[in-house]
Amino acid sequence: MVATHIADYTVLNNGMKMPWFGLGVWQGEPKDGPEVEHSIRIAIEAGYRHIDTAAGYENEVGVGNAVRASSIPREEIFITSKVRNSDQGYDSTLRAFEESFQKLGLDYIDLYLIHWPVKGKYKDTWRALEQVYRDGRVKAIGVSNFQIHHLEDLLANANVVPTVNQIELHPLLTQVKVRDYCRSKGIQVEAWSPLMQGHLDHPVLTNLAVKYKRTVAQLVLRWDLQHEIVTIPKSAREVRIRENADVFNFELSDDDMAAIDSLNQDKRFGADPDNFDF
């Protein structure tokens, strides 16, 4: 299904509805200050129904404040958070979830993710996520930055298949093999850093943006949606928040989708999931 409205959603492998389009709040400054609450208020006014945060972003309090202050019913807003690397392990993850739960101040969290595949810890961390899922305070659990071999290792002992794998994904890092593997397991792929941390000056993208009379950011976000990838662009500026969401009234041709697909360089702007030290 190709999204045609900002509130359109995919159905995860456990039946949960997850909006295709959301707002990322990574690097909102100051931490838990008014900026993140203002950004979320603007986003909700613009129709966003999906907010992505993490313990490591240090703005869960602000996210919770903004959601509670909204006139939109809680069940219509999808909230994701993540366990930070330093908290991974079974008991420490349970404590970390409790801390995030209290900071958000919501009755439940829609999606809770393992932020990075910390070697020697992510399987115990997953056991903890399965426990909080059974307890009912989180509606879905998943992973972030997992490569195929991480997923295979996790699934060998998991009782619950992850609903989501949130990965760095954009035209220069198309992650086709990971996407295909996740599809085969019923795991929804979600793109973080879909706008390449602002590195959008590529002639193919700029020429196509002119053709469609759109910004390059809008072009790339539409490419995500037509590939059935959940996407969460980050912005704190009202004009960008509204502009990024204006991607539901045009469609890229098959040839132009293929042209963007061909830009892949396996280029990362973030850390390598097989080689990180934080």
**What is the CATH class?**
Alpha Beta
Which structural class should the secondary elements be placed in? alpha/beta
Could you state the CATH homologous superfamily? NADP-dependent oxidoreductase domain
How confident overall, as mean pLDDT? Answer: 96
Largest sheet: 8 strands, parallel
Domain NADP-dependent oxidoreductase: 22-264
Pfam family, one: Aldo_ket_red
Organism: Alicyclobacillus fodiniaquatilis
Protein name: Aldo/keto reductase
Short note summarizing the structure:
This protein has 10 helices and 10 strands. It is an alpha/beta fold and 278 residues long.
What's the SSE blueprint?
Blueprint: E1 9-11, E2 17-19, E3 23-24, H1 34-45, E4 50-52, H2 60-69, E5 78-83, H3 90-104, E6 109-114, H4 122-135, E7 138-144, H5 148-155, E8 164-168, H6 176-185, E9 188-192, H7 203-212, H8 216-226, E10 230-231, H9 238-244, H10 254-261
Parallel strand pairs: 3-4, 4-5, 5-6, 6-7, 7-8, 8-9, 9-10
Antiparallel strand pairs: 1-2
Molecular structure report:
With 278 residues, the protein is α/β, with parallel strands linked by helices. The chain has one domain (9-200, 225-249): Alpha-Beta Barrel (TIM Barrel). The protein contains ten helices and ten strands. The protein has helices at residues 34-45, 60-69, 90-104, 122-135, 148-155, 176-185, 203-212, 216-226, 238-244, 254-261, and strands at 9-11, 17-19, 23-24, 50-52, 78-83, 109-114, 138-144, 164-168, 188-192, 230-231. An eight-stranded parallel beta sheet has the order 3-4-5-6-7-8-9-10. Helix 5 (148-155) links the parallel strand 7 (138-144) and strand 8.
